[in-house]
Amino acid sequence: MAIVQLEDVKKIYKLGKTEVHALRGVTFSIAKGDFAALIGPSGSGKSTILNLMGCIDQPTEGVVTIDGKVTHGLSDKALTRLRHETLGFIFQSFNLIPVLNVYENIEFPLLLGKNSMGKQETREWIEYLIEAVGLSDHMQHKSNELSGGQRQRVAIARALVTKPQIVLADEPTANLDSKTGQSILELMRKMNAELNTTFIFSTHDHTIIDIADHVIRLLDGQIVENTRQSAEAGGL
Amino acid sequence: MMLTTMRVAFRNISRQKKRSFLLVGAIAFGMLVITLLNALTGGVVENLRVNFSHALGGHVFIIGREFTSSGQVILKIAPDERLDQLLVEHDSVIESLTKRSRTLPTLIFGSKQTMQLMYGVDFLAEDKLLDSLVVTDGSLEHVLEYHDAIILPKPSGERLGVQPGETILVKLETLTGQQNVGEFRVAAFIEDQEQFGISAAYAHRTYLNSLLNLEADEYQVLNMFLTDLAVLEDLARDFRLGLRSPDELEEEFAEVEEEEMGLTVTVGNVPITPTPEPEEIRPWDGTRYEVMHINQIMEPVEQMVGVLNKVALVIFLILLVVTMVGITNTFRMIMIERTREIGTMRAFGMQKGQVRSIFLWEAAFLGILGSLAGVVLGGVIALILGSITFNADPSLQFFLNHGQITFTFAPASIVFNLCLVVFTSLLAAYRPATAAARLSPLEALSSHT
């Protein structure tokens, strides 16, 4: 069952009088629980697709469906709610809130909308995530007291805290050394398996491509390869 | 959710400590100026009220008038059940009573003479009076020893060219209108407060009474010191109403009727006001009373202080406007600095209104912290200045409390100023906050800041 679906999606940016065709009619779908990778050179349209799937941008043409909801025509409020309830984000440069500590950064998305969990359950869930990302000893640390790898671990826990259907990760290992990148990938794969959360990456990292269930290769705003790999082939 | 935005906002203040410190400092300075000026003027009014009340012998003043069989109006308070009853009823708020006689005699020294209001007081009963007088020459030490001692306002002494220790003649009218003359020994000169309507000479009541043809224990003015000035005007009204005689009530009623029935003559639709006829004094029985209170005397002072407070408010508003410009610019800068962070929060589901709230809470916290810092600083400065005894010019002593500046903090005024600061801070931050809220998550996340 597709959790994300793009149908003949086009995106044109206007730069003065010039029109830049970032996407030229892209169609694909991603199944629930997939560990999917969007790959391609710079300017191929990876980030544009992530933005459309993340409901922070709208297509010029075509239909984007997230968890059965067509994003076109939704108000800013409804899109914000959809992001909060369905999506989690991991950014290349972590984007932690500097004034909050590890626990508070992870808790933050839960405080932005309805939270069906009770106080105790919420606390246990956050502590479970912190333990899962291996930061139990750093719960009270602020982001400037953490290494790059540790910050990205916090970002992963933060992306998962609302139990989203989909986590969108924009080059999550790009700012990390290879060893740390590897451990972050292992962590995401583990969370993907444990929570059945769909992970969608934009990446240049071949390690991700190797372990992905679903690889979509882009070039000049078009799909040039759309491959689903077997679960065995996608294992680490 | 509000708690979360408040928490983030509060912590954001500590991010750029130097910048926040400067903003809080600017707000605190404005608040300090207005708080200190308000407290200073409040203290001056309070000191003047206290010093005036001692000089005048009370907070509430009752003057009695009798219409004699010979057709004269004389100042005198005779034993009266109504007055005694009212004094008993209000005993709980009356701290003490003082009884004075008063006259407007001509003071003569050599070939010079001047007119001067003069009180006959019981210096032993009015123990605070001598303390409150600001002596410019001579001494009050021997006032109690000499039965004919007189304390003169400095300008009167200068007009007469007399020196302390010398004797002057006092020419006055007795109660029944006869001329009388007495000799008084000048004990001291005191600071005059004529600009506030207080300029009086003081002498022993028993001696002055003997010249006025009053018995030693008789008096013309009954003054009351109250325990609580909050009840001052109510108490004065009670006495005013309670001391009205039936014929006074009838007269008032007749006046109202005349006014209501009065015909207006018009010429070409223009109403002509008839020329008032000279008022004829109608005889009355018993004593008629006039009740006044210290607030009526303090009116010109309070008007002057009101002007000062308005000037302080204008200065404060100018400082606030300058600070507002600073806050607006700072928040514009903050918005640019935190663009990516705003994008992150929006991506995770923060609504536009919540983004705006964070900025507005930050502005509110800056306003509150600045105001509180200003008030605390003002309190400390007031405490320090208030503990210093100034050897100021005698003319200024009436504004001080035993040579010390008094600061009276008015909580309502502080709360009003704090609200004003918070409101202007919110106003200053509103546009940048709205701009931050309107940022699209895509734009914000693409930002390099």
Write the layout of secondary structure elements.
The complex is a heterodimer of chains A (236) and B (449).
Chain A: E1 2-15, E2 18-31, E3 35-39, H1 46-53, E4 61-66, E5 69-70, H2 76-86, E6 87-90, H3 102-107, H4 119-132, H5 148-160, E7 166-170, H6 178-195, E8 198-203, H7 206-211, E9 214-219, E10 222-228, H8 231-234
Parallel strand pairs in A: 3-8, 3-9, 6-7, 7-8
Antiparallel strand pairs in A: 1-2, 1-4, 4-5, 9-10
Helix pairs in contact in A: 4-5, 5-6
Chain B: H1 2-13, H2 17-56, E1 60-67, E2 73-75, H3 81-89, E3 94-103, E4 106-109, E5 112-115, E6 118-121, H4 127-132, E7 135-138, E8 149-153, H5 154-160, E9 167-173, E10 179-190, E11 201-204, H6 205-212, E12 221-226, H7 232-242, H8 246-261, E13 265-267, E14 270-272, E15 287-293, H9 294-337, H10 339-347, H11 352-386, H12 394-397, H13 411-438, H14 441-446
Parallel strand pairs in B: 6-11, 8-10
Antiparallel strand pairs in B: 1-2, 1-12, 1-15, 3-6, 3-12, 4-5, 4-9, 7-10, 8-11, 9-10, 13-14
Helix pairs in contact in B: 1-11, 2-9, 2-11, 2-13, 9-13, 11-13
Helix residue percentage of chain B = 40-55%
* CATH architectural type of chain A: 3-Layer(aba) Sandwich
Count, helices of chain A: 8
CATH fold type of chain A: Rossmann fold
Radius of gyration of chain B using CA atoms only: 32 Å
What oligomeric state best describes the polypeptide chains here?
heterodimer
Radius of gyration of chain A: 18 Å
Order of helices and strands of chain B: HHEEHEEEEHEEHEEEHEHHEEEHHHHHH
At the fourth CATH level, what is the homologous superfamily of chain A? P-loop containing nucleotide triphosphate hydrolases
Mean pLDDT, all residues of chain A: 88
Could you say which structural class the secondary elements and strand pairing of chain B correspond to? alpha+beta
